[in-house]
Amino acid sequence: MQHVSPLPRRDGTVRVEKLSGRGTIDVVQQPSRSNNYTAIVEVKDADGGPDMYRFTAYFTPSTAVSGGEVIGSGTGVLNRGDVVLKWQGNVDRDLLITVRRNRIRYSTLAGAPPKGVQANLAATGLPEQDAQLTLSQREGRGTVTVTQQPTASNNYTAIIRVRDSRRGYGYFDFDILWQ
Prior knowledge:
The chain is mostly beta strands. The protein folds into two domains: 12-61, no CATH class; 72-178, no CATH class. 0% of the residues lie in helices and 54% in strands. The chain has strands spanning 12-20, 24-29, 40-44, 54-61, 70-73, 76-79, 83-91, 94-100, 103-110, 115-121, 133-139, 143-148, 157-163, 170-178. A four-stranded antiparallel β-sheet has the order 10-7-14-11, with no helix packed on it. The protein has a four-stranded antiparallel β-sheet with strand order 9-8-13-12, with no helix packed on it. Strand 5 (70-73) and strand 6 form a beta hairpin. It is globular. The chain starts with 11 loop residues before the first strand and ends with a strand. The model is unreliable at 63-75 (pLDDT under 50).
């Protein structure tokens, strides 16, 4: 399964973390105005035959955003009202979504695992700072709630619960906003 989020249209640095694969993975072009904010990642495999590669790419902006109320983090900045997580997918019954820094984890509490998920986390990830996250739900036949706000006591971890009110898969589309 592949999750891809577009790079923001601003200068920054992309770094990659190899999760699996026998070769090397390197960033050979960083995003900038001069290359239309394009990053190029090169995968080199000196051995013959196929291999499965998995990696995670992280983006860190080069400069802070100006204007509005800015909140700093170890990986970038967010303005109040910015989307931290844009989520779309199909849920069967009851799902927990856990967000910490630049990682999203899923726990199926009831029903089947989610399908067709597109989860786009802000380039900054979830900052290591107390926050009040709010929800903007566009679609879904059930409920979506932020059940745990990020605080120092929970290592700045947010938990979102998606409950589908009927059997079978239901489509959900929502944003989690930084406040």
